[in-house]
Design a protein that fits this description.
12 strands, about 350 residues, two-stranded antiparallel sheet, about 50% helix
Length: about 350
């Protein structure tokens, strides 16, 4: 059994306005302000925490804070601001598409999973206002994030369920077609290079396939995930694509600049595949990806320290700062693993080096 993750550091990064995006070591760095795409993902963690009796009080405070932030961040046309300064002034006119997709992801999750009706109602209202912008998201990751939120929103049976289903189906089809256009025997992927948060793409197809009852999306998602697992699992150790060079088709994978969000994304995608297929293989993949946080990585460095997570692995070793994205990645991964029932029989995790 995996324990529920502690929330102390996430709570320390959160004031009455939002979630500080950066930290110096484990101390919040106020000068960098707040970031909408962090708050969108943090809302998922907060909803789970609020539903857990052991963390309900902290979770309730976080849910209110993050919903309030997103309500203020949303523009009249449904888009969002992206960056808020510590002076409470918005630093941009419009957020990036990724930030919008992640905001919709968090709102859709809260619409379905928040433990209070008032929170679900507000999340649904903000998500509904954002729904028309989903069709304008130009990038595959932005669409994938929004798809993950729409899957949850659809499960909440909202009054605009037909429109939610239509937006989800259109986004899923665009991602599916991108895969069909770019796939090759040695490159089962929807882009010509692997960059960041990669496993969220097959996860979105897997979950959309289940929500829409469309098996071809399952097939594509599993093919992409199998390819990605082959790229990133090296002798039983998860080695994500580094952000210092990425992985171009026909090139070599960068191992420099490994980021925590890659491990969290693979955990979620592998568990989605495990739920769909029942194959133990995918449980093992999830365990290997989560083990990256705990020291089973190329640097043999522990990133999950207390209730926070270090910002990644660079050529020189561990980045000791514990910002919002890294901490959220670890908490999301640990939460996913905590919901996983014990294997029968439970075998200790053995990593071949």
């Amino acid at each position: 059994m995996y324990p529920d993750p502690p929330l102390d550091h996430l709570a320390a990064l959160t004031d009455d306005v939002g979630l500080f995006q950066h930290a110096t070591y484990d101390v919040p760095n106020r000068s960098c302000g707040y970031c909408t795409d962090d708050v969108g993902r943090a809302l998922i963690v907060a909803c789970d925490a609020a539903a857990n009796p052991a963390t309900a009080e902290t979770g309730a405070r976080l849910v209110r804070t993050y919903l309030s932030y997103l309500q203020d961040a949303q523009l009249p046309d449904g888009w969002f601001h992206g960056f808020l300064g510590y002076d409470r002034r918005w630093q941009d006119a419009r957020a990036t598409p990724d930030a919008v997709g992640r905001a919709i992801w968090g709102l859709g999750y809260a619409e379905a999973k928040a433990p209070r009706a008032s929170w679900r109602a507000l999340a649904g209202r903000l998500r509904a206002r954002a729904l028309p912008v989903v069709a304008t998201l130009a990038y595959v990751r932005s669409r994938a994030y929004a798809m993950l939120g729409l899957v949850h929103a659809l499960a909440a049976a909202p009054s605009d369920a037909f429109a939610v289903r239509e937006a989800l189906a259109k986004s899923a089809e665009l991602l599916f077609q991108a895969y069909r256009e770019r796939r090759a025997p040695e490159w089962e992927w929807c882009e010509d290079r692997l960059t960041y948060d990669n496993a969220r793409l097959p996860e979105a197809l897997l979950r959309a396939g289940s929500a829409l009852g469309h098996p071809p999306y399952h097939d594509a998602g599993l093919a992409m995930l199998e390819f990605y697992a082959k790229v990133t699992l090296e002798n039983g150790v998860f080695v994500p694509v580094g952000n210092a060079g990425w992985f171009e088709r026909g090139g070599e994978k960068s191992r420099s600049g490994q980021q925590p969000l890659e491990a969290a994304a693979l955990v979620a995608a592998a568990l989605a595949a495990h739920e769909l297929t029942g194959q133990h293989h995918w449980r093992v993949v999830a365990e290997l990806a989560h083990a990256w946080f705990l020291g089973h990585n190329t640097h043999e460095a522990v990133l999950a320290v207390g209730s926070g997570c270090c910002d990644g692995l660079d050529d020189g070793g561990l980045n000791p700062n514990m910002g919002a994205e890294s901490t959220l990645a670890y908490v999301l991964s640990a939460s996913d693993m905590a919901r996983l029932a014990p294997a029968a029989p439970v075998q200790p995790l053995r990593l071949a080096r």
